[in-house]
Amino acid sequence: MVHPLVSQLRFARGEFQRSLEGITDEEARKRFMPMNCISWMVGHLAAQEQRYWCDLAQGEVVSQRVYDLTAYGKPGTTPPLEDMWADWTAITAQADVFFETLTLDRLRELLLHRGKPVDESIGTMLQRNIYHYWYHIGESQAVCQMLGHTDLPEFVGDFGEDAAYRPER
Which pLDDT value is given to residue 165? Predict the structure, then answer.
């Protein structure tokens, strides 16, 4: 059984995708300073997932491109939306391989970077990743409004089975 935090991350991912349905490449690359453009946001979230769940957790880099164009601390770019979604899809699929191994005990562990423990537990990093998605969902919706979109999705969407709270019995 997948840990509830993983379910929450997957729900946030789905809401992020839903929030950007129908956005064109031209719209996704438009930058309203000082914000980044939508395609950058897609790549940036992919870069975080790759850093945490592919690189640190599994020793794999799925896309160097997201590190080069959208990693934390890099200058703003306006990459093609199709490329960023392709990288995001590949990275999240690889991250999901790691998530299938998580247990409650593992959430307390620290991943290693260059042989030294990182500052946050896997569980804390997972929470940070979830909250990061919600930040960029809000930011991307502000950009959509600035682009003139008026029929934006409502948030938070239908929980269904994906994000409903199920206390242990």
Answer: 61
